[in-house]
Design brief:
Immunoglobulin-like, 40 strands, Peptidase_C_arc/bac, Peptidase C-terminal archaeal/bacterial domain-containing protein, Jelly Rolls, 53% strand, 3% helix, nine-stranded mixed sheet, mainly beta, 4 domains, ten-stranded mixed sheet, 2 helices, 475 residues
Length: 475
């Protein structure tokens, strides 16, 4: 088991207690080591911690990188004390770029140079032991960890792996999502009959995107509470940085060895213009709209998808730290989808969160760091929904932001496309696409009609979306 998974290992409690009773002593130390993650800014000393952790530094397999780890002895004799430096649970990635002994004066920082040269993709870790031979046991241990991620870059913008995972075990893959990526798609296939295997996507902040409870996301496992699709899921506007995709098999899987194929890819098709505005439409009369769509990712074999029109409320309110904004939306029967979104803050560093309630029950929440938050409810029950926006942290004091809620229903009208026509685009290629908008009637007070055309791939994941806003409807 690697060092980062088990830490210092088991403690011999009986032996340790006997040693303490016999009067054994040990020195105390502080460590300042480089940390490069998506949230290292939140550390007490940004970019540094008590162990070495390089997740976002772009380290490649076969590449060497040297890190300065500062060790300070804070107790013991007021003179230099010789310490040995050694490795535990090292897979060969780590070494010292200097001698294996070091003299540590009292209260004076000493730099130890640690070199990492990982031989393969994935996570590599070891424990650096700092020990005074005149004391009992090992005086101090420093965890060192580096991650080698697969970059999702041109021309394919994709990563594929095939493997096998045993029942009640897991394997992890790391991919580097670049800045500006539009959609991250993860797909799991080639499972054998009875294989209860799933994937969980872990955000660069280190938290799972899906609910990782044992009843969710597994193939070949029936659970009434599961709303997680096991074969493919996508993440719009993914956080740039290193994502971990964990493949694991449930303890109840019929198979000991569970083979699989994992496909991770970026999708990105831009519609120009992003939003088409129809100044005036006549109820019951089709109105044509057109876009130029450009593929900014790997080769795409796609087709267009239309759908029901939506009724949208769009605002740009302001909020301060600790304040909340509250509004409601009432929907009737037959609504296919109800979406809520906030973002576009005037304070780029603002962190605002989104909560949605049906009565007293929370039915959705989006609380990532930052301000781009969204909640989507599929086939929501009729009733009144309360939306709460929380100003968690606004460094500028007050920030303006975009708010939108929209519900889609066939009774409002439709946006139609030729779904039988293929739209196949190589990277960088463009095509002209069109749709027809048919509005059933006038919009409710304070709301406007809204529609979307999606360009989807063979798995049904949207590579890009073009929107339509109808400003006025006449009978």
């Amino acid at each position: 088991m690697p060092a980062h998974a088990q830490g210092a290992g088991l403690i011999d409690i009986v032996g340790a207690w006997k040693t303490i009773k016999a009067g054994a002593t040990a020195h105390e130390y502080t460590v300042k080591a480089p940390v490069d993650t998506a949230i290292d800014f939140a550390l007490k000393t940004p970019g540094f911690g008590t162990g070495l952790y390089d997740r976002e530094g772009g380290l490649k397999a076969g590449q060497s990188k040297t890190y300065d780890v500062t060790v300070t002895r804070t107790t013991g004799p007021d003179r230099g004390v010789a310490h040995s430096l050694s490795w535990k649970n090292n897979d060969g990635t780590f070494s010292l770029a200097g001698p294996s002994t070091v003299s540590l004066p009292l209260g004076k920082p000493v730099t130890v140079k640690v070199k990492a040269r990982p031989g393969s993709a994935g996570v590599h870790s070891a424990i650096l032991r700092v020990n005074d031979a005149k004391t009992v046991g090992v005086d101090h241990q420093i965890l060192t960890t580096v991650v080698v991620a697969k970059p999702l870059v041109a021309p394919g913008y994709a990563f594929t792996a095939s493997g096998s995972v045993q029942r009640n075990d897991h394997k992890s893959y790391f991919v580097n999502v670049p800045e500006g990526a539009e959609t991250l798609e993860v797909a799991l296939s080639a499972l054998r009959s009875g294989s209860q295997t799933r994937f969980i996507s872990i955000h660069p902040y280190g938290v799972a995107v899906e609910d990782s409870s044992t009843i969710f996301c597994y193939a070949n496992y029936e659970s009434p509470s599961n709303t997680c699709r096991p074969d493919v899921r996508s993440y719009k506007d993914p956080q740039p940085g290193v994502w971990e995709i964990e493949v694991e098999s449930r303890r109840t899987s019929a198979l000991l060895d569970n083979s699989y194929k994992l496909d991770v890819s970026l999708l990105g098709a831009s519609f120009d213009p992003a939003v088409q505005t129809i100044a005036e439409a006549k109820a019951g009369t089709p109105a044509a709209v057109n876009w130029t769509v450009t593929n900014n990712a790997g080769d795409l074999e796609g087709k267009l998808k239309g759908g029901s029109l939506g009724s949208a409320k769009v605002e740009r309110p302001s909020i301060s730290t600790g304040e909340t904004y509250e509004t409601t939306v009432t929907i009737g029967e037959g609504v296919e989808k109800l979406d809520f979104a906030i973002g576009g803050t005037s304070d780029a560093n603002a962190d605002i969160d989104l909560y949605v309630y049906n009565g007293d029950t929370e039915v959705g929440a989006s609380t990532w760091a930052g301000s781009e938050e969204s909640v989507s409810l599929v086939k929501p029950a009729a009733g009144t929904y309360t939306v709460v926006v929380d100003g968690y942290a606004v460094p500028a004091g007050t920030t303006a932001y975009d708010y939108r809620d929209v519900y889609y229903a066939p009774s409002l009208g439709a946006i139609t496309v030729d779904e039988s026509k293929a739209v196949n685009l190589a990277n960088g290629a463009s095509a002209q696409v069109g749709a027809e908008v048919l509005v059933a009637g006038t919009a409710p007070e304070g709301r406007q009609f809204f529609g979307e055309v999606r360009l989807v791939n063979s798995r049904g994941t949207a590579a890009g979306t073009g929107s339509v806003v109808i400003e006025k409807v006449t009978p």
